[in-house]
Amino acid sequence: MPERKSRKDAVRNREAVLAAADALFARCERPEDVTMADVAAAAGVGKGTLFRAFGDRAGLLRALYEARLEPIREAAEAGPPPLGPGTPPRQRVSALLDAILCFKLDNRRLALALEESGNGSPYQAEHYEWWHSLLRAVLEQVPGLTDSGFTAHALLAATRADLVEHLAGQERVPRETARAQLANFATRILAAGPARGLSAED
Known about the structure:
Layout: H1 2-27, H2 36-43, H3 47-54, H4 57-78, H5 89-106, H6 108-115, H7 126-139, H8 148-157, H9 161-170, H10 175-191
Helix pairs in contact: 1-2, 1-6, 2-3, 3-4, 4-6, 5-10, 6-9, 7-8
């Protein structure tokens, strides 16, 4: 019984921490202002509990991000069109990019905090590797496209959290405008044929 109670307490504490961190990042102006001490106080747990559960601030950010991302991940891996596997590749690429953009817009501070967490290159983050792998696999199904790996990187660059924050925060681009701009960008990229290399005479 004590062991079961301990596990329940751990689960409850984890949920409280994630909820507190979520609320703090949603309200903050600068993601770096949210500290582990702030999260612990808001969740009503000790800092030791926080560090044991998540390791460090980057670990907490990753856990919160992954929890938020999970419904989209499930829809993309096994859901119905337009995100799911049964969708024509060009349509699915556009839908996946739109889902990423909407997720970043809905979680602006959290996404920015994760990219700025000092956790190394954002290209090495688990969620980035997953998105890139998925997009590359879908792009490989597009007729005439021979550089799916690079194209996936280029398309994902248009959804980086710092760019999304700049467009939404500094330039005040409306949500629907940003979605339309990204869709048009993806359509142009996928409609373009493979670039011709320069010949030796050029």
